[in-house]
């Protein structure tokens, strides 16, 4: 029923391009991290080893492309081979391409069987981390109980023609943002300006401004030195995305300016109706005014003023987003183990560690409950009324 083949590395990716781009246009809820140019960029600038692209066909039509990378993983004093979605610090979410008219579970089962029986790649665990609930791959993974667990969430806000964004977000938080915005303008006697730059002619200058803002704080030389400009490969990756997505208006830099001074910046990429915030930065000299929050609120307001459907997506679920009360999309992790002796040993090792963690947590909870009951006032019910 299914025919499965695979290619490897950047040359294999280039050979797949016509097939990939045709499937992208017909796939279920594709995001920017499914785009061909995204894989071109991470292969050239971020990853140190090749990606294997597994192509699933039915009746000679491509219905799925699953990118997997082989990693060595140290666990329990041994080295294990993990075949997984590509991994890097700058890859927050990943997905596979699956045709929207295709039942994903049978296609995935065929791929799983193919991976179990092929001889080119030796692997112990098949891993799909950081798969959001709306991703095409999630529809193949979620029905498989025992292999999938939630590992986090992603925050987003979708436009609702019946409700303005302030009706769904935290009123208290938005009120505080407005207060800080007024305070900033009053104390510095200058006006704040929001600039959404998606014009290809202005993107280079805006990108340079973003790099400057991001490097000004804890990510820069005075902090952890993790800013993009400190790493030529990271900078080349995001500049590559600018060059590929910019001409179509799908790459943008958002800037918050105090007069002409940039205070905060966002790197954004669009897929469908959603703008995804890939990277954010702000000038720490103005941290007390929460410039990043001000910029995000101005961007949301700008999108809400558009007549077409819109979404602002944070990609991840950062702790600071809790104050906003955004919509939360579950993010999942799925694990499948090879039927070899090594695969079964790794499965046993990880399950044993999970059981041990659960036991330790249970003992801690029991200790807390016991300590609480010892100090609980006598003669009162749970509601605090006298018996």
List keywords for this structure.
BioF2-like acetyltransferase domain-containing protein, 2 domains, Acyl_CoA_acyltransferase, BioF2-like_GNAT_dom, 9 helices, 13-stranded mixed β-sheet, Aminopeptidase, 13 strands, 387 residues, alpha+beta
Question: What do these coordinates show?
Answer:
Helix 8 (291-304) links the parallel strand 11 (274-282) and strand 12 (311-313). The protein folds into 2 domains: 2-152 and 332-358, Gcn5-related N-acetyltransferase (GNAT) (Aminopeptidase); 160-309, Gcn5-related N-acetyltransferase (GNAT) (Aminopeptidase, 3-Layer(aba) Sandwich), CATH 3.40.630.30. With 387 residues, the chain is an alpha+beta fold. Helix 1 packs antiparallel against helix 2 and helix 5 packs across helix 8. It is globular. Strands 1, 2, 3, 4, 5, 6, 7, 8, 9, 10, 11, 12 and 13 form a 13-stranded mixed sheet that branches. Mean pLDDT is 91; it is low at 376-387. The protein has helices spanning 9-24, 36-45, 104-117, 138-141, 171-188, 203-214, 232-245, 291-304, 341-374; strands at 2-8, 52-58, 61-75, 78-84, 97-98, 125-132, 148-158, 192-197, 251-258, 261-271, 274-282, 311-313, 327-337.
Write the layout of secondary structure elements.
Blueprint: E1 2-8, H1 9-24, H2 36-45, E2 52-58, E3 61-75, E4 78-84, E5 97-98, H3 104-117, E6 125-132, H4 138-141, E7 148-158, H5 171-188, E8 192-197, H6 203-214, H7 232-245, E9 251-258, E10 261-271, E11 274-282, H8 291-304, E12 311-313, E13 327-337, H9 341-374
Pfam families: Acetyltransf_6
Protein name: BioF2-like acetyltransferase domain-containing protein
Domain BioF2-like acetyltransferase: 172-306
